[in-house]
Amino acid sequence: MKTFVIHTLDDLAFVAKEVLLQLEDKKVVAFNAEMGAGKTTLINAMLRAMGIQDPDGSPTYSIVNVYDSPYYGAVYHFDVYRLESIEEALEIGVEEMLYSGGYCLIEWADKIAPLLPDDTVEISISVNENGERLVQLND
Q1: Which of 20, 26, 112, 139 is deepest in the core (most CB within 10 A)?
Q2: Which positions ≥6 away from 10 have C-beta within 8 Å?
Q3: What DSSP element (H or E) covers 68?
Q4: Looking at domain 25-128, what is its CATH homologous superfamily?
Q5: Considering the entire predicted model, what is its pTM?
């Protein structure tokens, strides 16, 4: 397990790059944290580190935003918070995207846990008493 501390927003770009380096050849990343802990903020920083100029924010209503990174290829940013069931995830093609070979960054990933590949990297974000974000990477 690797832990990064985000003291201020100035640390975000560094942590995003470090997380990408830690992924090595793994492409599916499950983000789990409380509402407001910083999942979308970290993912947007990772997207920028991947060369995506203007990430669209969280795909809360569209479920997935698709990007083409000049360095990483296809990147899918999922927010599956609003999904009601695994069947609904299957209907919109989540499984095909997860196994497409593209990078998949998934907010609220526990909602689709049965669909995730075995080598999924889990990232948890928590907020300490000083308001700092602790980013824990479990691969």
Answers
A1: 112
A2: none
A3: strand 64-69
A4: P-loop containing nucleotide triphosphate hydrolases (3.40.50.300)
A5: 0.93
